[in-house]
Structure formats: structure tokens, C-alpha cells
Specification:
- It contains nine helices and no strands.
- With about 200 residues, it is mostly helical.
- It has one domain.
- The termini are far apart.
Amino acid sequence: MANTFSVAIKDLQGNNLKYIIEISEVYQKITNTLLRTRSIAINKHGTHFITNISDKVSLIINKTHFIPLNIIRKTISKFLKDIDNFTKFLNRCNIRYGPSKSSAYRTSRIYLHKLHRIAPVFDYSKAIINLKSLQRFCHQTSRWPRITTQLALVIYITDKNNINEIEKLQNINIRIITNCSAYAFYNLRNILIDEGVLAKDE
């Protein structure tokens, strides 16, 4: 892995774009492994998340992807700080959108994109499709949960249908990065199951 990083740093002088792609891939691998293997919540209710990760977690990521420990620690620290700011914003702001379905979609997509930039752990293109499907259901049934709940379910469904990932994102991590309560998450999931929109094994 040392060679990979030296190539990325060397290419910074002649090819800045390649350097950015290398760093982006490392960030994605670290955050993806973290959210699939460890809960970042302080408690089982998922109302608050940890501010730092133990060296044990860093070592696991190091052994899995051969990424230097100092980069893992710095990446996780940045991720936790960014996701903390994002969820605090969601918690403070009462996000509103117009009465039309298109307005709801545009607003939700903005925050889905913001979240994907911080936590690139789900397939964004498929998440957009699932967002449209979910909001079509919301429009037809006149049920409009908070955007945070919509984001959580969209990520959950997208990840569950991702055959490339054997180990799925932990539900508690999905809820905490979207600032979604356990009640809201499981209530909407059960509604989708009862209405036949979502299979029970999903």
C-alpha cells in the first residue's frame, strides 16, 4: 500500500485529478468498512455517536485494506466531525418543501447528495431511483415522513439490494448518520412491508 500512496503523492505534481481520485477511494474504503463493521453510536438507541474510534477498529481497517494507521485515524476523525455537523444541522433545521411531488424530490435529493459526499457508502445513482419510488408511495398514500426518515429508508433499501456488499450497513449507523429516530425508521419500514412495497426480508 505504501507504493500506492507514493504514486498518488508523486502524481500530485503532474496530475492533480488522479491524486484526488486516490484519496477519495481511500476515504470511501475507510468509511464503508467502519459503518459496516462497527456501531458509531454511544448507546443502542442511536441518539448520539462517538467522537473517536479505538485503535482496535483502526487496526481492523488496516489489516483489511493495508491503509496506513495515521491516514485511517485522520480520515475517521474528519468523517465523525463532518457527520456531526451534518446531523446537528438536520436536527436544528425544520426542512420544508413545497406541496408538489417535484419539490419534495428536489429538496430530498439535495440532502441525499450532501450525505453521500460525507458518507459515500451507498450507490448514489440507485439511491436516487429508490428515493423517487419512496416518494411516489408517499404521494399516493398522503404519508410524508420527515426528510431524515426518508433518507434513512432510502439508504437502507439501496444497501440491502446491493449484491456487491455481503456485509450490510448497520441499521443503527444508517439512522445516526441521517439523524433518524428508531421509532420513525422502523415505523416507516413496517408500513412499507404492510403495503407490500418492501419485502419482509428487506
